[in-house]
UniProtKB/TrEMBL annotation:
TPR repeats lie at residues 280-313. GO terms for cellular component: actin cytoskeleton; cytoplasm. Keywords: Coiled coil, TPR repeat. It comes from Cotesia glomerata (Lepidopteran parasitic wasp). The lineage of its organism: Eukaryota, Metazoa, Ecdysozoa, Arthropoda, Hexapoda. This is Tetratricopeptide repeat protein 17. Residues 421-448 form a coiled coil.
């Protein structure tokens, strides 16, 4: 018996060395020499002879204990972090305590205008005297003249006037606000109406006086007339001596800035500083421009330069204060957001650990043997299990045993872990709401300009379509000889790609892929170049991008080269690949509204012939575009649908685009071409005419060609029905005729006409009538 017991002890020592556990903790040897686990051990298992199961049980126990320590340590950290947030209290009070000077000057932060006017009449400059202005002795006979600089001398082009800038080339279409703040730069008590009269007479005396031309530009800026202001400023630049040329350049930069061409204004103002680096007004104006462009570091540098030159300049002091406050508040709010994000991340990690912990404990309990002494067995895990909602009950009887129920869902974690910090989490929610409100208020302030909104008026702002006096409005146009040309009567329903640019909505697209990404229009983007791939959306809006369209575009490569000019106009002498990289850089830098950049990316893929990629970008644009501009991506989607022969899909999409904006000529043209494809000639004529009434030269004359073709087809397809006919045609579509036609009531020479609403061409009324050469109009 002793030998047998000794053998068991040797075996037990070897087993202890193998599994690395404490024998005195888990195992005992009975009087009979039998080795068995203690009653309160997790190793009291259903299969005591299963060594792998035993080893797994030990592994589970070790992980459970490690997770328990980890969870408790993290909870302590979370408690301390939330305690810090609780100490913040009301966000407004916290901001007040952390940035007292900024919050107490909130009105300045909200009201300061970085479009504030800056100019000078040059009267303070050495060598300029009041006699040079010649404003005295001007006759006032009741007829007030205005300065018209265009009549002073012709100036179509000059190398000094930055004609390469798009704003300068497009100056006839520029608009700006009235800069009444410029009056303070004029002599005290100046009457603006009289002042314009004086300048006009001054220019009559000396049409090349740069002083008068510059004053005339200031006059038109006060009036809010960007075009006339630029015409005067251009001539002032050309006529000004080199030592004074910075003054009209400052005026020109101010005009472009007020017209929302701030990036181009920066170029002009840099030139002004090059001419006169010691003039503080130029640095002040450039600081305002960089503030609007969002380059706050350069803006601050400009204000510092201005204050070094003129320490008393109050506007520079206020502008610098506003920028610094915004940076300080933004940093404080960003830090607070990061703290919140860290807490949320920790909570998610805590939940993940706790879920794993529950699964392991359930497995441990599952592997344990049920015995009447199970109450002792719970002793080891008791401290842990007591925190997770375990309830145990001793059952009496022949099979007396301990029954334990353990919650096994993840909600138990959230309930138990957060019960003592529920108030703190509510405080977190309150803080986040406060942060969101502050961020919303700051994002709409003038000091945080991002190009998320249009910076100019839409191309067809307040436009009303009216019948024109052009030839195509004539009911006899085109004449029959044109319709009989074989080349015209051939089916001309060929596909013409249509792209509605965000520029039509007031976005200055070219600066997004140039100045705002730190690139010059004529400078090549650094290699490598990557295409602007849009992330494939989780789902497509099947109302506009149908599964059939997705399938049709898969793997197709058919470049739409006619749209290339839209891209090449963005950057000079650039390849398609480089422009694609510029779009990608702008997208990653988030320099503009995401939907606008998605539209540029879709255009890139259409030119490249990759329509499946284009649809990814168009869906991305649909997801973020404001409702008022939704017609922009819809038109591109409809055009692609037309290309792949899905005319009904294209019609439905274009109709929605027309509902949003019925003025856009490209949308009307597209709808007209689609109706033509459906042989709905009357509807096609209506919409193509609408497009031509807005833009007579639309698509380089192709719209006019389509209208001529549709009218000729309409005439050639006009169907006469004799006695016994039982069908009529309206808008190129055949309908069943009225009952009386079936009764052969038609007289000789009569035909049946149905008239509709001119758009959908649903027949409203049908009747028989004799046809003449004159065009028949419906009610």
């Amino acid at each position: 018996m002793m030998v047998k017991l000794k053998s068991f002890r040797i075996f037990f020592m070897l087993f202890q060395a193998i599994i690395g556990i404490s024998g005195t903790t888990h195992w005992v040897v009975t009087e009979n020499g039998k080795i068995q686990p203690q009653l309160d051990s997790a190793f009291q298992m259903k299969r005591p002879n299963d060594l792998p199961a035993l080893l797994e049980q030990e592994k589970r126990m070790n992980i459970v204990q490690s997770l328990h320590k980890k969870i408790m340590a993290r909870k302590m950290v979370l408690d301390s972090q939330i305690a810090v947030l609780n100490s913040i209290g009301d966000l407004e009070s916290w901001l007040q305590s952390s940035n007292p000077e900024c919050i107490s000057n909130r009105k300045l932060l909200e009201d300061f205008d970085f479009y504030a006017s800056v100019a000078t009449d040059g009267s303070y400059r050495k060598g300029v005297t009041q006699k040079d202005y010649l404003l005295d002795g001007i006759p006032d006979d009741g007829k007030r003249a205005i300065p018209d600089c265009k009549k002073t001398f012709p100036l179509d082009f000059s190398m000094y006037t930055f004609e390469h800038l798009s704003a300068m080339r497009n100056r006839k279409n520029l608009s700006q606000h009235q800069e009444k703040g410029l009056i303070k730069y004029l002599p005290p008590g100046t009457d603006l109406n009289k002042f314009g009269h004086q300048i006009a007479h001054g220019l009559k005396r000396n049409s090349t006086s740069w002083l008068h031309l510059n004053l005339a530009a200031i006059y038109w800026r006060v009036k809010g007339d960007a075009f006339n202001a630029l015409e005067c400023a251009r001539r002032a630049i050309v006529t000004a001596p080199r030592q004074y040329r910075d003054i009209p350049l400052l005026t020109t930069g101010g005009i472009l800035h007020a017209a929302k061409y701030s990036a181009e204004a920066a170029i002009v103002l840099h030139a002004a500083i090059d001419y006169a680096p010691t003039q503080s007004h130029q640095h002040l104006a450039l600081g305002h421009v960089y503030a609007i462009l969002g380059d706050y570091n350069r803006s601050l540098a400009c204000y510092d330069n201005s204050l070094r030159l003129t320490p008393s300049m109050e506007q520079a002091k206020q502008a610098k204060f506003v920028i610094l406050c915004c940076q300080s508040l933004t940093e404080a709010l960003t830090a607070l957001h990061k703290r919140l994000d860290d807490i949320v991340t920790e909570l998610h990690a805590q939940q993940k650990d706790y879920t794993e912990w529950l699964k392991l404990e359930e497995k441990i309990l599952c592997e344990r043997m049920k015995t009447p002494f199970a109450a002792f067995r719970a002793h080891r895990l008791g401290p842990i299990l007591s925190n997770r909602g375990q309830s145990c009950m001793q059952r009496d009887g022949d099979d007396a045993m301990l029954s334990c129920q353990v919650a096994n869902d993840n909600q138990m974690f959230a309930h138990n872990l957060l019960v003592d910090i529920g108030v703190s989490l509510q405080q977190l929610k309150n803080v986040e709401n406060q942060v969101e409100k502050i961020n919303d208020r700051m994002s709409t302030a003038k000091v945080l300009p991002f190009f998320m909104e249009p910076t100019s008026k839409p191309k067809y702002y307040n436009f009303e379509i009216k019948k024109s006096n052009r030839e195509f409005e004539n009911k006899n146009w085109p004449d029959q000889s044109e319709c009989e040309k074989p080349s015209l009567l051939i089916d001309t329903k060929q596909y013409i790609p249509i792209y509605l640019s965000p520029e039509n909505k007031g976005y200055i697209v070219n600066i997004f892929v140039n100045e705002l990404i730190g690139m010059d229009s004529g400078k090549e983007h650094a290699l490598p170049w990557y295409p602007p791939i849009c992330q494939t959306p989780n789902s497509f809006d099947s109302k506009f991008i149908s599964p059939l369209l997705l399938k049709a575009t898969m793997g197709i490569s058919s470049p739409e080269s006619s749209l290339t000019s839209f891209l090449t106009s963005l950057a000079k002498n650039s390849e398609l690949a480089e422009i694609g990289q510029r779009i990608l850089t702008a997208t990653k830098s988030e320099v503009a509204a995401p939907w606008v950049l998605s539209m540029l990316a879709s255009l890139h893929w259409r030119v490249a012939g990759k329509f499946r990629n284009a649809l990814d970008c168009l869906q991305s644009a649909l997801n973020t575009v404001p409702n008022g501009f939704k017609d922009v991506p819809l038109v591109s989607i409809a055009s692609i649908s037309q290309k792949f022969g899905l005319i009904d899909d294209a019609l439905r999409t274009t109709k929605e685009a027309l509902r949003i904006n019925s003025i856009e000529p490209l949308t009307n043209y597209l709808y007209g071409s689609l109706l033509f494809a459906k042989k709905n000639y009357t509807g096609a004529v209506y919409h193509v005419k609408q497009s031509l009434r807005v833009d007579p030269e639309l698509i380089d004359g192709k719209a006019l060609m389509l209208l001529r073709t549709v009218i000729c087809h309409k005439r050639s397809n006009s169907r006469r029905i004799g006695n016994g006919g039982n069908e009529i045609e309206s808008c190129g579509m055949t309908y069943s005729s009225p009952e009386r036609i079936a009764k052969h009531d038609l007289n000789e020479g009569e035909t049946v006409l149905c008239f509709g609403d001119g758009r959908d061409c649903k027949p409203i009324q049908c009747f028989a009538m004799k046809m003449h050469n004159d065009e028949v109009k419906g009610p």
